[in-house]
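Protein chain data
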Amino acid sequence: MKNIEKIDIFNFDLELGKHKPYIGLSYQIFGQPLGSSPVIVVNHALTGNSNIAGKDGWWDAITGEDKSIDTNYFTIIAFNIPGNGYDNDESNLIDSYRDYTVRDIARIFWEGLFFLKVENIHAVIGVSLGGAIAWEMAVLQPDKIDNLIPIASDWKATDWVIGNVLIQDQILKNSDDPIVDARLHATLLYRTPEYFNQRFQRDKLDALSALQIEYWLFDHGYKLKSRYRLAAYKLMNHLLKTNDITRNRKDFLSIVSEIQSNIHLVTIDRDCLFIADETRKTYRELINVKENVFYNQIQSIHGHDAFLIEFNQLSNILNPILNNYKLHNNVSA
Protein backbone atom coordinates (compact mmCIF):
# COMPACT_ATOMS: atom_id res chain seq x y z
CA MET A 1 0.00 0.00 0.00
CA LYS A 2 1.83 3.09 -1.26
CA ASN A 3 2.08 6.26 0.85
CA ILE A 4 -1.28 5.90 2.54
CA GLU A 5 -1.81 8.59 5.14
CA LYS A 6 -4.48 9.17 7.76
CA ILE A 7 -6.44 12.02 9.32
CA ASP A 8 -8.11 11.64 12.73
CA ILE A 9 -11.59 13.16 12.93
CA PHE A 10 -13.13 13.48 16.39
CA ASN A 11 -16.70 14.11 17.59
CA PHE A 12 -18.50 13.87 14.28
CA ASP A 13 -22.31 14.07 14.19
CA LEU A 14 -23.89 12.06 11.39
CA GLU A 15 -26.83 13.32 9.35
CA LEU A 16 -29.23 10.79 10.91
CA GLY A 17 -28.37 11.89 14.44
CA LYS A 18 -25.75 9.39 15.59
CA HIS A 19 -22.58 10.72 17.20
CA LYS A 20 -19.21 9.22 16.30
CA PRO A 21 -16.40 9.98 18.76
CA TYR A 22 -13.79 9.06 16.15
CA ILE A 23 -13.57 8.49 12.40
CA GLY A 24 -10.33 7.61 10.63
CA LEU A 25 -9.97 9.09 7.14
CA SER A 26 -7.18 7.61 5.03
CA TYR A 27 -5.96 9.03 1.74
CA GLN A 28 -3.19 9.09 -0.84
CA ILE A 29 -1.60 11.99 -2.67
CA PHE A 30 -0.22 11.75 -6.19
CA GLY A 31 1.66 14.25 -8.29
CA GLN A 32 2.86 17.56 -6.93
CA PRO A 33 3.28 18.37 -3.21
CA LEU A 34 0.36 19.90 -1.37
CA GLY A 35 0.30 23.67 -1.57
CA SER A 36 2.38 23.84 -4.75
CA SER A 37 -0.18 23.14 -7.49
CA PRO A 38 -3.88 23.08 -8.31
CA VAL A 39 -5.74 20.27 -6.54
CA ILE A 40 -7.86 17.53 -8.10
CA VAL A 41 -9.90 15.22 -5.87
CA VAL A 42 -10.83 11.79 -7.23
CA ASN A 43 -13.64 9.89 -5.48
CA HIS A 44 -13.64 6.12 -5.90
CA ALA A 45 -16.52 3.76 -6.72
CA LEU A 46 -18.18 1.07 -4.61
CA THR A 47 -15.33 -1.44 -4.51
CA GLY A 48 -12.60 1.09 -5.26
CA ASN A 49 -10.02 2.80 -3.07
CA SER A 50 -7.49 5.60 -2.94
CA ASN A 51 -4.88 3.84 -5.10
CA ILE A 52 -5.69 5.53 -8.39
CA ALA A 53 -2.26 5.69 -10.04
CA GLY A 54 0.96 3.74 -10.41
CA LYS A 55 1.29 0.05 -9.62
CA ASP A 56 -2.15 -1.54 -9.29
CA GLY A 57 -3.79 1.88 -9.61
CA TRP A 58 -7.35 1.40 -10.82
CA TRP A 59 -7.22 4.62 -12.89
CA ASP A 60 -3.57 4.52 -13.88
CA ALA A 61 -4.50 4.92 -17.57
CA ILE A 62 -6.03 8.30 -16.72
CA THR A 63 -3.76 9.51 -13.90
CA GLY A 64 -0.01 9.99 -14.27
CA GLU A 65 2.71 11.90 -16.07
CA ASP A 66 1.35 13.57 -19.21
CA LYS A 67 -1.99 11.77 -18.80
CA SER A 68 -5.41 13.41 -18.50
CA ILE A 69 -5.02 13.92 -14.76
CA ASP A 70 -1.43 15.06 -15.08
CA THR A 71 0.82 14.37 -12.09
CA ASN A 72 3.42 16.70 -13.63
CA TYR A 73 1.13 19.61 -12.88
CA PHE A 74 -1.66 18.73 -10.44
CA THR A 75 -1.81 17.59 -6.82
CA ILE A 76 -4.24 14.69 -6.79
CA ILE A 77 -5.95 13.65 -3.55
CA ALA A 78 -7.90 10.40 -3.29
CA PHE A 79 -9.69 9.61 -0.03
CA ASN A 80 -10.89 6.21 1.05
CA ILE A 81 -14.53 6.18 2.03
CA PRO A 82 -14.28 5.37 5.76
CA GLY A 83 -15.08 1.70 6.24
CA ASN A 84 -13.98 0.55 2.78
CA GLY A 85 -11.29 -1.59 4.41
CA TYR A 86 -8.41 -0.50 2.19
CA ASP A 87 -6.16 0.46 5.10
CA ASN A 88 -6.44 -3.12 6.49
CA ASP A 89 -7.32 -1.73 9.93
CA GLU A 90 -10.10 -3.88 11.39
CA SER A 91 -11.02 -1.10 13.81
CA ASN A 92 -11.99 1.16 10.90
CA LEU A 93 -14.62 -1.23 9.52
CA ILE A 94 -18.18 -0.08 10.14
CA ASP A 95 -20.87 -2.49 11.30
CA SER A 96 -23.57 0.14 11.86
CA TYR A 97 -23.68 0.91 8.14
CA ARG A 98 -27.25 2.20 8.20
CA ASP A 99 -26.11 5.15 10.32
CA TYR A 100 -24.24 6.70 7.37
CA THR A 101 -25.28 8.61 4.25
CA VAL A 102 -23.52 9.95 1.18
CA ARG A 103 -23.85 13.41 2.73
CA ASP A 104 -21.86 12.26 5.76
CA ILE A 105 -19.06 11.00 3.51
CA ALA A 106 -18.96 14.31 1.62
CA ARG A 107 -18.73 16.20 4.94
CA ILE A 108 -15.96 13.87 6.11
CA PHE A 109 -14.04 14.50 2.87
CA TRP A 110 -14.34 18.26 3.40
CA GLU A 111 -13.09 17.84 6.97
CA GLY A 112 -10.07 16.10 5.49
CA LEU A 113 -9.49 18.77 2.88
CA PHE A 114 -9.69 21.58 5.41
CA PHE A 115 -7.26 19.69 7.65
CA LEU A 116 -4.89 19.58 4.66
CA LYS A 117 -5.48 23.34 4.22
CA VAL A 118 -7.09 22.89 0.82
CA GLU A 119 -9.58 25.72 0.33
CA ASN A 120 -10.09 25.61 -3.43
CA ILE A 121 -10.24 22.59 -5.74
CA HIS A 122 -9.68 22.73 -9.46
CA ALA A 123 -11.81 19.62 -10.04
CA VAL A 124 -13.68 16.99 -8.09
CA ILE A 125 -14.01 13.88 -10.24
CA GLY A 126 -16.22 11.09 -8.93
CA VAL A 127 -17.08 7.78 -10.54
CA SER A 128 -20.29 5.91 -9.73
CA LEU A 129 -20.77 6.16 -5.93
CA GLY A 130 -17.89 8.63 -5.95
CA GLY A 131 -19.87 10.86 -8.28
CA ALA A 132 -22.73 10.98 -5.79
CA ILE A 133 -20.25 12.10 -3.14
CA ALA A 134 -18.91 14.72 -5.56
CA TRP A 135 -22.42 16.16 -6.01
CA GLU A 136 -22.80 16.46 -2.24
CA MET A 137 -19.39 18.07 -1.91
CA ALA A 138 -20.41 20.75 -4.40
CA VAL A 139 -23.67 21.45 -2.56
CA LEU A 140 -21.94 21.66 0.82
CA GLN A 141 -19.29 24.10 -0.46
CA PRO A 142 -20.79 25.69 -3.59
CA ASP A 143 -17.94 28.18 -4.12
CA LYS A 144 -14.88 25.97 -3.57
CA ILE A 145 -14.86 23.65 -6.62
CA ASP A 146 -14.03 24.99 -10.07
CA ASN A 147 -15.13 21.88 -11.99
CA LEU A 148 -17.57 19.23 -10.81
CA ILE A 149 -17.23 16.05 -12.89
CA PRO A 150 -19.59 13.20 -11.89
CA ILE A 151 -19.02 10.17 -14.13
CA ALA A 152 -21.52 7.30 -14.49
CA SER A 153 -23.42 8.69 -11.54
CA ASP A 154 -26.39 10.80 -10.44
CA TRP A 155 -27.38 13.42 -7.86
CA LYS A 156 -30.11 11.13 -6.51
CA ALA A 157 -30.89 7.46 -6.09
CA THR A 158 -33.61 6.45 -8.51
CA ASP A 159 -36.18 3.77 -7.69
CA TRP A 160 -34.18 1.46 -9.97
CA VAL A 161 -31.01 2.00 -7.94
CA ILE A 162 -32.84 1.68 -4.61
CA GLY A 163 -34.43 -1.58 -5.73
CA ASN A 164 -31.08 -3.05 -6.67
CA VAL A 165 -29.55 -1.86 -3.39
CA LEU A 166 -32.29 -3.79 -1.60
CA ILE A 167 -31.51 -6.98 -3.53
CA GLN A 168 -27.80 -6.58 -2.83
CA ASP A 169 -28.47 -5.97 0.87
CA GLN A 170 -30.67 -9.07 1.12
CA ILE A 171 -27.98 -11.19 -0.51
CA LEU A 172 -25.29 -9.76 1.76
CA LYS A 173 -27.38 -10.49 4.86
CA ASN A 174 -28.74 -13.91 3.95
CA SER A 175 -26.33 -15.72 1.62
CA ASP A 176 -23.95 -18.44 2.78
CA ASP A 177 -21.31 -16.86 0.52
CA PRO A 178 -22.46 -13.23 0.53
CA ILE A 179 -19.67 -11.38 -1.25
CA VAL A 180 -19.49 -13.87 -4.10
CA ASP A 181 -23.25 -14.08 -4.55
CA ALA A 182 -23.81 -10.33 -4.33
CA ARG A 183 -21.06 -9.77 -6.86
CA LEU A 184 -22.73 -12.17 -9.30
CA HIS A 185 -25.84 -10.00 -9.29
CA ALA A 186 -24.00 -6.67 -9.30
CA THR A 187 -21.78 -7.63 -12.24
CA LEU A 188 -24.86 -8.07 -14.39
CA LEU A 189 -25.63 -4.39 -13.70
CA TYR A 190 -22.10 -3.25 -14.45
CA ARG A 191 -22.09 -4.65 -18.00
CA THR A 192 -24.79 -4.94 -20.68
CA PRO A 193 -26.79 -7.85 -22.13
CA GLU A 194 -25.12 -7.15 -25.48
CA TYR A 195 -21.68 -7.45 -23.90
CA PHE A 196 -22.44 -10.83 -22.37
CA ASN A 197 -24.10 -12.21 -25.47
CA GLN A 198 -21.34 -11.09 -27.83
CA ARG A 199 -18.51 -12.22 -25.58
CA PHE A 200 -19.71 -15.66 -24.50
CA GLN A 201 -22.19 -16.79 -27.20
CA ARG A 202 -23.43 -19.60 -24.96
CA ASP A 203 -20.01 -21.29 -25.06
CA LYS A 204 -19.63 -24.33 -22.82
CA LEU A 205 -16.60 -25.26 -20.77
CA ASP A 206 -17.27 -28.98 -20.64
CA ALA A 207 -19.73 -31.72 -21.47
CA LEU A 208 -21.59 -31.13 -18.20
CA SER A 209 -22.84 -27.85 -19.63
CA ALA A 210 -20.89 -25.47 -17.44
CA LEU A 211 -20.98 -22.23 -19.39
CA GLN A 212 -18.26 -19.63 -19.90
CA ILE A 213 -20.57 -16.90 -18.56
CA GLU A 214 -21.03 -18.81 -15.31
CA TYR A 215 -17.31 -19.34 -14.87
CA TRP A 216 -16.61 -15.67 -15.62
CA LEU A 217 -19.17 -14.43 -13.09
CA PHE A 218 -17.95 -16.76 -10.35
CA ASP A 219 -14.37 -15.71 -11.07
CA HIS A 220 -15.34 -12.07 -10.48
CA GLY A 221 -17.10 -13.04 -7.27
CA TYR A 222 -14.17 -15.00 -5.85
CA LYS A 223 -11.67 -12.29 -6.79
CA LEU A 224 -13.70 -9.68 -4.94
CA LYS A 225 -14.04 -11.97 -1.92
CA SER A 226 -10.25 -12.31 -1.76
CA ARG A 227 -9.72 -8.55 -1.36
CA TYR A 228 -12.93 -7.10 0.07
CA ARG A 229 -14.63 -7.20 3.45
CA LEU A 230 -18.31 -7.99 4.02
CA ALA A 231 -18.75 -4.96 6.29
CA ALA A 232 -17.32 -2.73 3.56
CA TYR A 233 -19.65 -4.15 0.92
CA LYS A 234 -22.71 -3.63 3.13
CA LEU A 235 -21.76 -0.01 3.81
CA MET A 236 -20.90 0.96 0.24
CA ASN A 237 -24.03 -0.66 -1.13
CA HIS A 238 -26.17 1.12 1.47
CA LEU A 239 -24.62 4.51 0.65
CA LEU A 240 -25.93 4.28 -2.92
CA LYS A 241 -29.47 4.31 -1.53
CA THR A 242 -28.88 7.49 0.51
CA ASN A 243 -27.88 9.61 -2.47
CA ASP A 244 -30.14 12.69 -2.73
CA ILE A 245 -28.86 16.27 -2.66
CA THR A 246 -32.42 17.58 -2.14
CA ARG A 247 -33.14 15.63 1.07
CA ASN A 248 -34.29 18.12 3.74
CA ARG A 249 -33.26 20.94 1.44
CA LYS A 250 -34.85 23.05 -1.26
CA ASP A 251 -35.78 21.77 -4.73
CA PHE A 252 -33.13 20.60 -7.17
CA LEU A 253 -32.93 23.73 -9.31
CA SER A 254 -32.74 26.04 -6.30
CA ILE A 255 -29.87 23.99 -4.90
CA VAL A 256 -27.81 23.67 -8.07
CA SER A 257 -28.27 27.31 -8.98
CA GLU A 258 -26.09 28.10 -5.97
CA ILE A 259 -23.26 25.84 -7.16
CA GLN A 260 -20.63 28.03 -8.83
CA SER A 261 -18.70 25.12 -10.34
CA ASN A 262 -18.65 24.29 -13.99
CA ILE A 263 -20.66 21.07 -14.08
CA HIS A 264 -19.46 18.45 -16.56
CA LEU A 265 -21.91 15.56 -16.66
CA VAL A 266 -20.43 12.34 -18.02
CA THR A 267 -22.79 9.47 -18.74
CA ILE A 268 -22.44 6.10 -20.45
CA ASP A 269 -24.96 5.38 -23.17
CA ARG A 270 -25.63 1.77 -22.10
CA ASP A 271 -25.21 2.13 -18.34
CA CYS A 272 -27.60 -0.34 -16.70
CA LEU A 273 -27.23 1.17 -13.20
CA PHE A 274 -27.13 4.96 -13.56
CA ILE A 275 -29.03 5.10 -16.81
CA ALA A 276 -28.11 7.75 -19.36
CA ASP A 277 -31.65 9.11 -19.68
CA GLU A 278 -31.55 10.33 -16.07
CA THR A 279 -28.37 12.29 -16.79
CA ARG A 280 -29.95 13.78 -19.91
CA LYS A 281 -32.94 14.89 -17.81
CA THR A 282 -30.57 16.47 -15.30
CA TYR A 283 -28.79 18.32 -18.08
CA ARG A 284 -32.05 19.64 -19.55
CA GLU A 285 -33.03 20.96 -16.12
CA LEU A 286 -29.63 22.41 -15.35
CA ILE A 287 -29.36 24.50 -18.48
CA ASN A 288 -32.41 26.44 -17.31
CA VAL A 289 -30.49 27.85 -14.35
CA LYS A 290 -26.81 27.55 -15.29
CA GLU A 291 -24.80 28.45 -18.37
CA ASN A 292 -21.67 26.55 -17.34
CA VAL A 293 -23.07 23.01 -17.55
CA PHE A 294 -21.93 20.48 -20.14
CA TYR A 295 -23.12 17.05 -21.23
CA ASN A 296 -20.70 14.30 -22.29
CA GLN A 297 -21.50 10.74 -23.28
CA ILE A 298 -19.30 7.67 -23.54
CA GLN A 299 -20.49 5.08 -26.02
CA SER A 300 -19.68 1.58 -24.90
CA ILE A 301 -21.04 -1.94 -24.96
CA HIS A 302 -19.35 -2.35 -21.56
CA GLY A 303 -22.06 -0.34 -19.81
CA HIS A 304 -21.42 1.04 -16.32
CA ASP A 305 -17.89 -0.37 -16.18
CA ALA A 306 -16.89 1.74 -19.18
CA PHE A 307 -15.21 4.27 -16.85
CA LEU A 308 -12.69 1.50 -16.14
CA ILE A 309 -12.28 0.54 -19.80
CA GLU A 310 -12.95 3.35 -22.30
CA PHE A 311 -9.86 5.38 -21.47
CA ASN A 312 -9.56 7.07 -24.87
CA GLN A 313 -13.08 8.42 -24.67
CA LEU A 314 -12.57 9.49 -21.07
CA SER A 315 -9.34 11.26 -21.97
CA ASN A 316 -11.06 13.11 -24.81
CA ILE A 317 -13.61 14.39 -22.29
CA LEU A 318 -11.21 15.24 -19.46
CA ASN A 319 -8.35 16.72 -21.49
CA PRO A 320 -10.13 19.92 -22.56
CA ILE A 321 -11.45 20.52 -19.04
CA LEU A 322 -8.09 20.08 -17.33
CA ASN A 323 -5.63 21.08 -20.06
CA ASN A 324 -7.44 24.34 -20.84
CA TYR A 325 -6.55 25.38 -17.31
CA LYS A 326 -2.89 24.61 -17.95
CA LEU A 327 -2.91 26.51 -21.23
CA HIS A 328 -4.63 29.48 -19.59
CA ASN A 329 -1.87 29.51 -17.00
CA ASN A 330 0.90 29.09 -19.62
CA VAL A 331 1.90 25.65 -18.42
CA SER A 332 3.10 23.16 -21.02
CA ALA A 333 1.42 19.78 -21.09
Notes: The chain has a mean pLDDT of 94. Residues 5-158+246-328 form a domain with the Rossmann fold fold (CATH 3.40.50.1820). The chain has two domains: 5-158+246-328, 160-237. DSSP finds ten helices and ten strands in the chain.
